[in-house]
Amino acid sequence: VPLHFRWNLEQMVAGCQRAQVPLVLVAPVTNLLDCPPFKFAFAPHQSPQQRAQFSEYWEQATQNTGEAENQASAGQALASALEIDPHHAGALFLLGRRQYASGDYAHAKRTLQAARDADVCPLRAPTAISAVIHEVAQNADLPLVGADRLFSDASEHGIVGDQWLVDHIHPSLEGHQLLAEAIAEKCVQEGLIQPGLFPPWQTTLRGTAAVDPGTRQKNTLGVGRVRGWQASLTAVSWPSRCGWLKELRRSTGDGAVHCPAGNPPHDGLAIYVTCSANRGSSGKPEGPLRLDGC
Which residues pair with 291 in a beta bridge? Predict the structure, then answer.
């Protein structure tokens, strides 16, 4: 995947440069703290006996919650599971959450990054993808906005979570504002825009107060739909639907999960979207583009 991504990105960069189109690359941000891996699997080299043993430890690690004695037992079971499969995305995420809860933020960040990178369904850009973006920007001498670093610096303990993002990758209104300001400042630094032609965004009213009520209401509804979509994916993709996620969040102090097993949220499941347009006699699209979704 990183090789294909590099080729595609380099082709886009080359096309923009041939057309003399100014270009700024952005290294994406991902939700490390509050988004569990979308999918995980046994390592292919594991024997049936190892898988059975891992499953036993996994059950203990996710079920023994509540009292301190049970928490200690769950921690031991998790450590034993990771000895069998040190790259298991679910176990790494659970370990990272435990490290975060204990105040070991440096190790928590590294572990949560490893959990993201081990996700079998990599809907969050892994380290290898971010590295490609940085390398392409450097090789092509292009300005780069590191959204990953930007949001980390603005997050508590340097670990990005729901504070700035509405799901696994998409920023909230405040997150979009933070990113937009960084991109605007980069464009000014590179001479791509002249700040004197526009109101100085550095001195204008920022935050939610600058958003009119109608826009904020639409955003709130949109966030609800996105969270419903994310919860439904989590419910389907993880074992026993939401049962494990419930135990995980109970054991790490996140409270109840609004995704009861067997009844995942279904509001706004805009999963399948296609683009279509009226086509003329030449077969080429004519008129406005239309989005058709469920």
Answer: 275
Taking the whole predicted model, whether its pTM rises above 0.85 is answered as no
Q: Which residues, including other chains, have CB under 8 Å from residue 119's CB and lie 6 or more apart?
A: 37, 38, 39, 40, 89, 126
pLDDT tens for each residue of 55-77:
999 999 988 666 666 778 889 99
Query: Token digits for 118?
Result: 């081990």
- Do 102 and 128 meet the contact criterion of CB atoms below 8 Å apart? no
> What SS3 class is residue 290?
strand
- HSE (side-chain half, CA atoms, 13 Å) at 270: 12
DSSP string, 144-186: EEEHHHHHHHHSGGG---TTTBSSSS-B-HHHHHHHHHHHHHH
Q: Cβ neighbours of residue 74 under 8 Å, at least 6 residues apart?
A: 60, 61, 62, 63, 64, 65, 251
Residues 239, 235: Cα–Cα separation, whole Å: 8
Q: What tokens does 53 get?
A: 């043993």
Distances (CA, A) of 107 to 101, 103, 136: 11, 9, 29
Give how far Cα 158 sits from Cα of 5, 91, 109, 244, Å: 27, 22, 8, 27
238-249 tens-digit pLDDT: 333 233 333 444
- Residue 71 CA to residue 286 CA, distance in Å, equals 62
Please answer whether residues 117 and 126 qualify as being in contact, where contact means their C-beta atoms are separated by less than 8 angstroms.
yes
